[in-house]
Amino acid sequence: MTVKSGSVGQIVFAAEGLAGAACSAALNKVRSLASAAPSGRAFAAIATLSDLSQSAETHLTAGNDALGRGDAASAQSEWSQAVNVMNQMAQEARNGQPARAAEAKALAR
User: Looking at the domain assignment, is residue 59 inside a domain?
Assistant: First the structure.
């Protein structure tokens, strides 16, 4: 993602949208793994999603802190990184499949 001057609102909007989708997909994945997968595999998937969630939170917090200091450029950078992590988290929760393919597969079950 390229950060352009004046795009703070766009980044925040993107982060808000991705946060909900990423969290929903991650929770569905955890529920699915907890009910069907071997314990080792479930633990690895939960650990991965937990690490990504923590990373996204760290970037969002750092962005808010930077904005509070009046450093809009650093805030944009942190929020861009948070969006990238949330994209990665959503992709991980969908087993690396694009959103529509994962949705179609879930509906077929």
Answer: yes
pTM given for the model: 0.56
In a domain, 30, yes or no: yes
CA distances from 84 to 43, 59, 103 (A): 23, 10, 21
Backbone phi, psi, residue 27, to 5°: -65, -40
In angstroms, rounded to a whole number, what is the distance separating the alpha carbons of residues 18 and 53?
A: 12
Note down the domain range covering 84.
9-108
Burial status of residue 49 (CB atoms within 10 A of its CB: 0-12, 13-18, 19 or more): buried
Q: Residues 58-67, buried b or exposed e (16+ Cβ, 10 A)?
A: ebbebbeebb
- Quote the CA–CA distance of 23 and 53 in Å, as a whole number: 8
Write out pLDDT tens, residues 62-93.
999 998 999 999 999 998 999 998 888 888 77
Count other Cβ atoms within 10 Å, centred on residue 32: 15
